[in-house]
Amino acid sequence: MALTIKWINHIEAWQHSGLKQSEYCRQQGLNDNTFGARLSDYRKAQNGTLPALIPVQLKASVTGSIVLKHAKGHQVDMPTSTSASWLAELLRCLD
Fold it and tell me: In terms of DSSP H, where are the helices of 1-95?
């Protein structure tokens, strides 16, 4: 499973909480094993062994297209009918 903003937010909240991992998971209704796996992914990403999340901006224009702007300056214009799975694959490849 990919490291999502949701998991990054949980990991960083846990790190600042002062709670044991199991206590944080119990309070948040998270599975301990899943949290541990996402924490491992997070640490690998911090060490550069996994691709990090790519910051992008999505904007719908008045012409009915989606404009995807990457922080490194790339820009892609696509119709709003673009497949979400195709768009997700594109975002994974941009790094």
Answer: 5-17, 21-28, 32-46, 84-93
- Residue-level pLDDT at 61: 55
Rounded to an integer, what distance in angstroms lies between the CA atom of residue 70 and that of residue 91?
Answer: 9
> Percentage of residues in the chain with pLDDT exceeding 70?
74
Check if the beta carbon of residue 52 is closer than 8 Å to that of residue 45: yes
Is residue 31 within 8 Å of 39, Cβ to Cβ?
Answer: no
Q: What does the angle CA 64 – CA 60 – CA 58 come to, to the nearest 5 degrees? A: 140
- Show the tokens assigned to 12: 């960083």
* Whether the predicted pLDDT of 73 surpasses 60: yes
- Greatest Cα pair distance, the chain, in angstroms, is 50
Has residue 35 got a pLDDT over 70?
Answer: yes
At residue 54's C-alpha, the angle toward residues 88 and 34, to 5°, is 75
